[in-house]
Amino acid sequence: YAKMIYNGLWYSPLKAALDAFIKSSQERVSGVVRIKFLKGNATIVGRKSVNSLYDEDLATYTSADRFDHKAAEGFIYVWGMPTRVWSQKMRG
To answer: How confident is the model over 8-39, as pLDDT tens digits?
Structure first.
C-alpha cells in the first residue's frame, strides 16, 4: 500500500478498490487488543471481542475437542506437497 502511494497511485482505481476492500473487511472488527512493546518488538498479549472467531474447542487438539482430525489429513498432504517434491528432486 505504501509503495503504491509512493509511486503516485493515490487517485488510481487500484487504491480505490483496496480502500473499499479494507473498509468492508473491517465492518465487524471490534474489541480490545493489548500489546507489549519492548526493545523494538511488539507482542500481542491479550485480545477480546464480541465478534471473535476464536473457539477453544476448535483450537485445541485433544480427544474431547470438536475439531475433526481426519479433516486435516488432506490439508496437510496438499500443504506439504512442495516440500515433498523438492525433497524427491534433491535425492535424485
So the answer is: 999 999 999 999 999 999 999 999 999 999 99
Output the 3-class SS for the chain. Answer: CHHHHHCCCCCCHHHHHHHHHHHHHCCCCCCEEEEEEECCEEEEEEEECCCCCCCHHHHCCCCCCCCCCCHHHHHHHHHHHHHHHHHHHHHC
Q: What is the pTM of this model?
A: 0.51
- CA geometry: angle at 21 spanning 15 and 27, to 5°? 135
* CA dist., res. 63 & res. 41, Å (int): 36
Three-state secondary-structure class, residue 48: strand
